[in-house]
Amino acid sequence: MKIASVEDSVEEAEWIRSILRDAGYECEVFSTGGALMQAMRKQPFDMIVLDWRLPDIDGIELIYWIRQTFGTHLPVLFLTNRVSNEDIVAGLDAGADDYLVKPALAQVLLARIGAMLRRTYGMGDVIVQVGPYMLDPRKRSIFLRGLKLEVTPREFDLAIFMFRNIGRLISNDLMERMVWGRQLGPDSRTVATHLSRLRIKLMLGPENGVRLSTIYAHGYRLDMVSSDGMAAPET
């Protein structure tokens, strides 16, 4: 799971990096908003942690850019020393998902990050309906046009995670952590193998309105498509 941290203080940036890496996250640190913007055009991140005061752009403007460019799905945490109620409201109104005031305890930072990731990528008990597919988390069952499909418990967890995040690029690390509860190692083929089985068992293809793509070096994405394989128009 890859988290980007935008922090111009060298000491605080290293503290954040150390805390996140010790907790098993991959953390890339940027000292300016411009550096983050350039990186986000080239690689996906699962979450952004950012300061308000940056050398080139303030955090509010950076959040506006993130939301306009990447939409509302990417979780963003403000980690800043601005403590007034007006600042907190401004940060949340700009599009931040949470707001944490410095200095923060390591365990509080990790708890907030964990909660945000669960809210954003977690499964929950809500039935998922995508095209002809229906996934019921309580019955742990998948149906295609009313016909129940046979999958293993782990395949179900992976399938509902992908369907709940349809259209979103999901990194291998994030998938491992959210479905398996841990990182499986850089040489593991577990995720790829399970997805290959799901592609066959769930008949994932344009004929059923979806496409599962492998994005080299980045992860996987499940998209809604039309019967000719083109991306379905947004509604």
Please describe what this structure looks like.
It is a single chain. The protein has 235 residues and is α/β, with parallel strands linked by helices. It has two domains: 2-121, 3-Layer(aba) Sandwich (Rossmann fold); 128-224, Winged helix-like DNA-binding domain superfamily/Winged helix DNA-binding domain (Arc Repressor Mutant, subunit A), CATH 1.10.10.10. It is 39% helix and 21% strand. It has helices at residues 10-22, 33-40, 59-70, 85-94, 106-121, 153-164, 172-180, 190-201; strands at 2-6, 26-30, 47-50, 76-80, 98-101, 128-130, 133-136, 141-144, 147-149, 210-215, 219-224. The protein has a five-stranded parallel β-sheet, with helices on both faces. Strands 6-7-8-9 form a four-stranded antiparallel β-sheet, covered by helices on one side. The protein has a two-stranded antiparallel ribbon with strand order 10-11. Strand 4 (76-80), helix 4 and strand 5 form a beta-alpha-beta unit. Helix 6 packs across helix 7 (172-180) and helix 6 (153-164) packs across helix 8 (190-201). It is elongated and about 55 Å long.
Structural class: alpha/beta
How many structural domains can be distinguished in the coordinates?
2
Mean pLDDT: 85
Name the CATH superfamily assignment of the largest domain.
Response regulator
Radius of gyration: 19 Å
Please list the strands of the largest sheet in the order they lie side by side: 2-1-3-4-5
Largest sheet: 5 strands, parallel
Number of strands: 11
Span between N and C termini?
30 Å
Total DSSP helices: 8
Low-confidence segments, ≥5 residues, pLDDT <50?
none
Overall form: elongated
